[in-house]
Amino acid sequence: MIGALSHIMKMDLVRINMHKASVFFIYTIPALMVFAWTHNIDWKYGIALAVGNAAGGWWSAKIAVRKGERIIRVVLAVAMLIMAVKLLNSF
């Protein structure tokens, strides 16, 4: 989805991330309802995770809007590098 919006629609990463978050929100609500209905949620950990995600999302959105697409690319590249090293069991 990110590649299509970037290349076909010529959108910058800040706007692409806004659309991605909207789609994520739309399918998260029914999933949350299903898991809550089947009692598969540990609410203590879930609420802590939700608060952390909300705070991180708010903070990163402010940085992305202020500093633009370049910072998103740098953070994404660093995260991908760390994940690749971790997956290769290098540390």
Helices and strands in order, then pairings?
Layout: H1 2-7, H2 13-37, H3 43-67, H4 69-87
Helix pairs in contact: 3-4
Task: Walk me through what this model shows.
The protein is built from four helices and no strands. It has one domain (2-87). It has 91 residues and is mainly α. The mean pLDDT is 86. The longest helix has 25 residues, at 13-37.
User: Which of globular, elongated, flat, extended, rod-shaped describes the shape?
Assistant: globular
- Please write the string of helix (H) and strand (E) elements: HHHH
User: End-to-end span in angstroms?
Assistant: 32 Å
Tell me about the largest β-sheet: none
Percentage of helical residues?
A: over 70%
Mean pLDDT: 86
Query: Spans of 5+ residues with little confidence (pLDDT < 50)?
Result: none
Q: What is the gyration radius calculated from CA atoms?
A: 16 Å
How many separate domains make up the residues? Answer: 1
Count of DSSP strands: 0
The percent range for strand residues is under 5%
Q: Tell me the structural class.
A: mainly alpha
Discrete helix count? 4
Task: Produce a short descriptive summary.
This protein is mainly α and 91 residues long.
Give descriptors for this structure.
91 residues, mainly alpha, globular
